[in-house]
């Protein structure tokens, strides 16, 4: 049976992609962020996951305000990136785990989650940058299942609903008959706001509490409405919903393999956490 071997939550600021392209990993501005990943890559080399289930938010590459699903899942043989206008080079296509995608999709719909099924899906920086941070040579040793959550058009899915989606994904993975090791990625955040009167807003106290809750009280953030999350984490900080989906996939306790928190990169509180089921 398939087994979740880890949860990797990380920020996906577009500027990370430009820093990678320009080889700025040792630049004083970027080094504190990039230094968070060698221990994670060492863990990947040891554990060797087969499949990644990536939870992220689309930034207009697939969905825009005229067509914005609450939840969508990719069920394609491969996923390509395209130019988003950020100066991030496109990456090699990502092979899909079609069998697991359809299995999760069927289970979620039977669990009363109305998933949009995408047999073609482009993936933007929210999906591609975590992959490039984990495997910088960009030769993907894993197959992928993309799970997209709306963090753009209000009302957003509630934090509680996102956590329950994660629980349902976790049950679906556990019921998949293939002997596969699965890494779940939650992409986005943490606190940041890019426009309006609070542009540049960062809430370190909330971020650290949220990161602690991933281990000690995983449903802590489900008390907040979407408006509450904007107040606490900023308009774009609501991307932490992807972290909640990822954390919900593991029902039991987890331990921290490695974590990193750095302020700021591109007006964002950048955070990375690798969690392992106990």
Describe this structure in words.
- By secondary structure, this protein is an alpha/beta fold.
- It has a single domain (3-277), classed as Protocatechuate 4,5-dioxygenase, Chain B.
- 32% of the residues lie in helices and 22% in strands.
- The protein has an eight-stranded mixed beta sheet, sandwiched between helices. Strands 4-5 form a two-stranded antiparallel sheet.
- A hairpin with a 2-residue loop joins strand 9 (254-265) and strand 10 (268-277).
- The longest helix is centred in the middle third of the chain and has 16 residues, at 159-174.
- The chain is globular.
- The mean pLDDT is 96.
Main sheet: which strands, in order across? 6-3-7-2-8-1-10-9
Q: What summary fits the major beta sheet?
A: 8 strands, mixed
**And the CATH topology?**
Protocatechuate 4,5-dioxygenase, Chain B
Rg value: 17 Å
What would CATH call the homologous superfamily? LigB-like
Number of separate structural domains: 1
Which band does the percent of strand residues land in? Answer: 15-25%
Described by the principal axes of the CA atoms, the overall outline is: globular
Keywords: Dioxygenase, Oxidoreductase
Pfam family, one: LigB
GO molecular function, one term: oxidoreductase activity, acting on single donors with incorporation of molecular oxygen, incorporation of two atoms of oxygen
Protein name: Protocatechuate 3,4-dioxygenase
């Amino acid at each position: 049976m398939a087994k979740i071997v880890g949860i990797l939550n990380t920020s996906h600021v577009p500027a990370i992609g430009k820093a990678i392209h320009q080889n700025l990993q040792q630049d004083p501005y970027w080094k504190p962020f990039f230094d968070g990943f060698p221990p994670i890559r060492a863990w990947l080399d040891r554990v060797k996951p087969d499949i990644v289930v990536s939870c992220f938010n689309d930034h207009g590459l697939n969905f825009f305000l005229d067509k914005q699903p609450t939840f969508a899942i990719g069920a394609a043989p491969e996923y390509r990136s395209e130019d988003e206008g950020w100066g991030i080079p496109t990456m090699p296509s990502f092979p899909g785990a079609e069998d697991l995608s359809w299995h999760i999709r069927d289970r979620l719909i039977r669990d009363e989650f109305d998933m949009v099924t995408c047999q073609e899906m482009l993936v933007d920086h929210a999906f591609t940058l975590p992959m490039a941070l984990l495997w910088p040579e960009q030769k993907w040793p894993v197959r992928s299942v993309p799970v997209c959550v709306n963090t753009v058009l209000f009302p957003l899915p509630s934090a509680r609903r996102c956590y329950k989606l994660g629980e349902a994904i976790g049950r679906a993975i556990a019921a998949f008959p293939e002997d596969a090791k699965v890494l779940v990625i939650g992409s986005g955040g943490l606190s940041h706001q890019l426009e309006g009167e609070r542009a540049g807003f960062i809430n370190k106290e909330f971020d650290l509490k949220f990161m602690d809750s991933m281990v000690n009280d995983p449903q802590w953030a489900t008390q907040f409405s979407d408006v509450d999350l904007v107040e606490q984490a900023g308009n774009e900080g609501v991307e932490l919903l992807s972290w909640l989906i990822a954390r919900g996939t593991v029902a039991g306790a987890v331990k921290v393999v490695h974590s990193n928190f750095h302020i700021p990169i591109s007006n964002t509180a950048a955070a990375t956490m690798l969690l392992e089921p106990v």
